[in-house]
Design a protein that fits this description.
Blueprint: H1 2-23, H2 30-43, H3 46-59, H4 66-79, H5 83-96, H6 103-116, H7 121-125, H8 136-151, H9 158-185, H10 189-202, H11 207-223, H12 226-240
Helix pairs in contact: 2-3, 3-4, 4-5, 4-6, 5-6, 6-8, 8-9, 9-10, 9-11, 10-11, 11-12
């Protein structure tokens, strides 16, 4: 019995070793390994590209491909949906290369990665509206794209960042609107008014800002504040004319 157990254990270890060897990145010259990684990136083989790039990064941290390998890893992690790894790689690269010529791209990828954390494939597939989800990734992405436009106004990624900022602004406004509506339904009139006014102040040119006036109006009516009701009704009429 012991002999059979030992043979079985040896077989398992042998198979595990074969599996490790199969998955291991070959010890070849860095130029060849980099070429293979690039081929995987171009064909969309993100997992294999990541394996090879990580091997290059660990084996040759100060090699001639060092910076590009780190940049490629950021992109591969992002495309593979490994967002925490992408963000960690971005932070590392930015810390080590604060004035790199591709810093605008790195910041752009940071915004894209934060933005991707807010999306959900199943929600999109079934058309589920989740504007009430935690907006922290959206806020982070908003800051990233805004910072890119401030630091690199002539960047190749400026136009797309500007368009994404508009989308994110509406996303944040819709989140605050859902909060105002929640307060209204809970009969927290003052909280509903405060949140509505915050939307109008922070996101004045959004649809959510116009909708928040109706929540504000209802809350003022419940509180019996006739003057405030009249002012809000005037604001609603004014917005209709725009």
């Amino acid at each position: 019995m012991k002999r059979q157990y030992l043979l079985g254990l040896i077989s398992l270890l042998f198979l595990a070793g074969c599996a490790d060897n199969k998955d291991a990145v070959p010890d070849i010259p860095p130029s060849d390994l980099y070429t293979q990684a690039q081929q995987e990136l171009q064909s969309g083989g993100w997992t294999e590209a990541i394996k090879k790039l990580e091997a290059l990064d660990s084996r040759y941290p100060f090699g001639p491909y060092s910076d590009q390998v780190q940049l490629d890893l950021i992109y591969a992690y992002y495309k593979n949906g490994d967002y925490p790894l992408a963000l960690a790689s971005i932070e590392r690269f930015s810390r080590l290369n604060p004035t790199h010529e591709r810093s605008d791209w790195v910041l752009y990828m940071r915004g894209l990665t934060h933005m991707a954390q807010d999306s959900n494939f199943m929600h999109s597939l079934f058309g589920i509206d989740r504007h009430d989800r935690d907006p922290e990734p959206v806020k982070a992405a908003f800051i990233d794209f805004k910072r890119l436009l401030e630091r690199y106004p002539d960047s190749l990624y400026a136009a797309d960042s500007r368009a994404r900022l508009s989308f994110l602004k509406n996303r944040l406004a819709e989140y605050d609107l859902s909060s105002a509506d929640f307060y209204l339904r809970r009969e927290a009139w003052v909280a509903a008014i405060n949140r509505s006014q915050e939307i109008q102040k922070t996101y004045p040119d959004t649809v959510a800002a116009h909708k928040s006036l109706k929540i504000q109006l209802e809350a003022y009516k419940k509180l019996g504040l006739d003057d405030a009701v009249k002012r809000t009704e005037e604001l609603i009429e004014l917005n209709k004319k725009k």
